[in-house]
């Protein structure tokens, strides 16, 4: 078995159901979940507009300057990050869209650059590294193509660890998937077909099947048609009270009504890695979307860990630090790698 902090044994993956039950992550009732859209159609459109800010930089403005004081650049204050990391076992969690890849008009073309792939690969050489995305796990893997990572798709409802050959562990079935919403799969597929049919008359609308959740992208929809799109989605979901609607950046997301999100996925992965109650671990989570706030909040409430929001605009967030865009994320990952190499060499010289 390899040394803890590089790739610890994750045999816990072989019994996810018992873990899920022990945590009492039960379903929540329709209409009661935070972010659910139990509202009239005009309120849907207002919320769609509010959750989709124009992506412009605001440096130099009073609002941005005040915000950056409380959420400083993780690159410009890198020493603060490494001071917190000294003597700790670091685990890195990454969102995909807007964090590792740029936000693009066509979600099927959100490709990761070769330079970013290499940065993530190098990070995974030194730290357990996971990608937690709203996309399907298979789709994220097709984009990234790094078997040494942990992948959590569908907002953490579909988790799989690296293959045993990648981990070089002596025991445990690390590839056993964790899928707390598996019973909803037939319903999700049924709603997917219904949404494809209902939205085909709205130019620019795109429905994406992320296996355990669905995304209705409206980035390319004329704002005048947002109300019509919201009405079509509302009409379909009215027949499925066990599904809820949440929002991301110019995307409506349909999920099963269970108390599970990226924050719960982060907790599950930490426990599977053997770090659940370890004060010697420092999780670092980097993400850009509203759905990443669940993970930021977990780290804040734990009092251990670093949340980094990727944004060029001031946003309300539970993250402690900020980065502007994927290129800055890549720079941060490479600096973490160099810092780890430097500290390892210094330790070996002692």
TrEMBL record:
Removes the phosphate from trehalose 6-phosphate to produce free trehalose. Trehalose accumulation in plant may improve abiotic stress tolerance. PANTHER family: TREHALOSE 6-PHOSPHATE PHOSPHATASE, TREHALOSE-PHOSPHATE PHOSPHATASE C-RELATED. Keywords: Hydrolase, Stress response. This is Trehalose 6-phosphate phosphatase. One of its GO terms (biological process) is trehalose biosynthetic process. InterPro entries: HAD-like_sf (IPR036412), HAD-SF_hydro_IIB (IPR006379), HAD_sf (IPR023214), OTSB-like (IPR044651), Trehalose_PPase (IPR003337). It holds the Pfam family Trehalose_PPase. It catalyses: alpha,alpha-trehalose 6-phosphate + H2O = alpha,alpha-trehalose + phosphate. Its cofactor is a divalent metal cation. Its EC number is 3.1.3.12. Gene3D superfamilies: HAD superfamily/HAD-like. It comes from Eucalyptus globulus (Tasmanian blue gum). Pathway: Glycan biosynthesis; trehalose biosynthesis. Belongs to the trehalose phosphatase family. GO terms for molecular function: trehalose-phosphatase activity.
């Amino acid at each position: 078995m390899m040394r803890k902090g590089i790739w610890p044994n994750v045999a816990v993956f072989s019994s996810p159901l018992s873990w899920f039950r022990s945590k009492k992550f039960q379903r929540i009732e329709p209409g009661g979940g935070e972010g659910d859209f139990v509202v009239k159609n005009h309120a849907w459109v207002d919320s769609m507009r509010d959750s989709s800010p124009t992506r412009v930089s605001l440096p130099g403005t009073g609002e941005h300057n005040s915000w950056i004081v409380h959420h400083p650049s993780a690159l410009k204050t890198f020493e603060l990050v490494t001071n917190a990391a000294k003597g700790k076992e670091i685990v890195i969690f990454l969102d995909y869209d807007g964090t590792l890849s740029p936000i693009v008009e066509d979600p099927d073309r959100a490709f990761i650059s070769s330079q970013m792939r290499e940065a993530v690969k190098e990070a995974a050489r030194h730290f357990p590294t996971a990608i937690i995305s709203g996309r399907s796990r298979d789709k994220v893997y097709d984009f990234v193509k790094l078997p040494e990572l942990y992948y959590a798709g569908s907002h953490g409802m579909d988790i799989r660890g690296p293959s045993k050959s990648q981990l070089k562990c002596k025991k445990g079935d690390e590839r056993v998937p964790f899928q707390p919403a598996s019973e909803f799969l037939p319903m999700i597929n049924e709603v997917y077909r219904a949404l494809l049919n209902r939205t085909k008359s709205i130019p620019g609308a795109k429905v994406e099947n992320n296996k355990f959740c669905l995304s209705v992208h409206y980035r390319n929809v004329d704002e005048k048609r947002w109300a019509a799109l919201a009405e079509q989605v509302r009409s379909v979901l009215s027949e499925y009270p066990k599904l809820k609607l949440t929002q991301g950046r110019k995307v409506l997301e349909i999920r099963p009504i269970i108390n599970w999100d990226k924050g719960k996925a982060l907790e599950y992965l930490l426990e599977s890695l053997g770090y659940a109650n370890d004060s010697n671990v420092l999780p670092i989570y980097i993400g850009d979307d509203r759905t990443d706030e669940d993970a930021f909040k977990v780290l804040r409430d734990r009092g251990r860990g670093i949340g980094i929001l990727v944004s060029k605009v001031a946003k309300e967030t539970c993250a402690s630090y900020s980065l502007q865009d994927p290129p800055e994320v890549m720079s941060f990952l490479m600096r973490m790698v160099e810092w780890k190499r430097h500290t390892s060499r210094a330790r070996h010289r002692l």
